Amino acid sequence: MKRAGVSSHLIAIIYALLFSFNASAFDDTHKNFLQCLYHNNSTSLSKLVYTKTNSSYSSILQFSLQNLRFSYNNTPKPLVIVTPLQPSQVQATVICSQLHGLQIRIRSGGHDYEGLSYVSQLPFVIIDFINYRKIQVDVENRAAWVQVGATNATKLVHKWQSVASKLDNNLVLGLLLQTVNSSINKGELTVQALFNGLFLGGVDKLLPLVQESFPELGLAKEDCTEMSWIESTLYSSGSYGQQPLEVLLNRSQVNTDSFKAKSDIITDPIPESGLEGLWRLMFEDEAKDLELVIFPFGGRMSEIPESEIPFPHRAGVLYQIQYSLHWQQKGEEVAQRRINWMRKLYSYMEPFVSKSPRKAYINYRDLDIGVNNIHGNTSYEQASIWGHKYFNNNFKRLAYVKTKVDPLNFFRFEQSIPTLV
Ligand SMILES: *[C@@H]1O[C@H](CO)[C@@H](O)[C@H](O)[C@H]1NC(C)=O
Ligand SMILES: *[C@@H]1O[C@H](CO)[C@@H](O)[C@H](O)[C@H]1NC(C)=O
Ligand SMILES: *[C@@H]1O[C@H](CO)[C@@H](O)[C@H](O)[C@H]1NC(C)=O
Ligand SMILES: *[C@@H]1O[C@H](CO)[C@@H](O)[C@H](O)[C@H]1NC(C)=O
Ligand SMILES: *[C@@H]1O[C@H](CO)[C@@H](O)[C@H](O)[C@H]1NC(C)=O
Ligand SMILES: CC(=O)N[C@H]1CO[C@H](CO)[C@@H](O)[C@@H]1O
Ligand SMILES: CC(=O)N[C@H]1CO[C@H](CO)[C@@H](O)[C@@H]1O
């Protein structure tokens, strides 16, 4: 007992020493970084920099944070947040970060599913493009939304898989599978399949199209709503008919929670037995607040060659699945439990999805599929483990570009493109 007490006392002291050493090293880095920044452009930058002692630091950090899993007290925080208005201020921030050995995290209107746009394991600075917000919208298209709900619809989902990627180019018919509370059996979970479509055109043109290619859906005029394109964005956010268009200008966040997401690319229909096994998993308690956003490919997506842009999932792909599991409770324990359940779901899906390697979509960032070394460089071979999943044959070309524009690999993070040595 006594010995254990002594050794833990020692550990505490050593820890404290290490900590204070690091803290003062950080203080200096932090001071030098700011000096560098202000030296180069004090007037324009001083009003755009938030240090930890600034009373607005937390609210700026939280502003576009979308996953509470990365907002704990022990989540690494940036030394400084810079909110540039001009390219020269971005340049100064990059140069000073490099000079003082700080990493950079960059965020804009979107967000990274694994928090990589605002968290780093190494001392870092955030460049937050919160002030860059010029948008021009010039679209007059009318669109029709379609929504059909169904419960226990294995056959419909099965059929959808082979139909959705071959529909008219003006129609995208997606599928949302959710685990929700049963309205019939209180206290039980149920799987809901929601067919959700967007058609660029009127209802009269849409109905015969769907009648011909997917009659089983039983789409009727009452299932459709005609609206303008801009209204359809309101529809996607769930506010259509409830709030005026101006709500799209509101930048405050609503209902952030914690989540873990993964993705799959599907090239062959999943058999009915496979879907039924998926439903069984979705009925498990841990599946509460699970969402599968299933998005068809085909159409314009297949016409673009794989080598045209980095995104490689093209002809031959039927659809993509985004799995996301959400929770409200705080803490590591619940997070780990739910993440483990997601890994179980992912492993169940393996036989049914793309292979060699199993593909993924980079915007649904998933660090489970492979990561770079946190300290130092990462070999091309190691990075290829995750790189080929997101980029397929384009990964090598991305590494060539990276080697050209950032030979010292200054811009790096858990899944940054590696340099070729
Ligand atoms: C400093 O910022 C101003 C605009 O605020 C810009 O015109 C000027 O070029 C910048 N100077 C340097 C050295 O970056
Ligand atoms: C916090 O930082 C902002 C942006 O640099 C600045 O305008 C503001 O005066 C600072 N507030 C305090 C209390 O230091
Ligand atoms: C589902 O049921 C649980 C427990 O009965 C409840 O806490 C939760 O709020 C319900 N969710 C919805 C969306 O109704
Ligand atoms: C913006 O949305 C937030 C959160 O829903 C709300 O509290 C706020 O009143 C809204 N602001 C405006 C100007 O509508
Ligand atoms: C990483 O690679 C670059 C380019 O080859 C090299 O300049 C740098 O020293 C390497 N860094 C480390 C920590 O090995
Ligand atoms: C771009 C630029 O002007 N960089 C300079 C910023 O200030 C430091 C000194 O603090 C110089 O070393 C940089 O060259
Ligand atoms: C394939 C399948 O599971 N069909 C079922 C869908 O739901 C209806 C009504 O709940 C059942 O009668 C079917 O057997």
Automatic annotation (TrEMBL):
Domain FAD linked oxidase N-terminal, first and last residues per copy: 78-152
Gene Ontology biological process terms in this record: cannabinoid biosynthetic process
Superkingdom classification of source: Eukaryota
Record InterPro entries: BBE (IPR012951), FAD-bd_PCMH-like_sf (IPR036318), FAD-bd_PCMH_sub1 (IPR016167), Oxid_FAD_bind_N (IPR006094)
Signal peptide interval: 1-25
Keywords: Disulfide bond, FAD, Flavoprotein, Glycoprotein, Signal
MF annotations from Gene Ontology: flavin adenine dinucleotide binding; oxidoreductase activity
Annotated ranges, domain Berberine/berberine-like: 360-418
Family: Belongs to the oxygen-dependent FAD-linked oxidoreductase family.
Protein name: FAD-binding PCMH-type domain-containing protein
Native source species: Arachis hypogaea
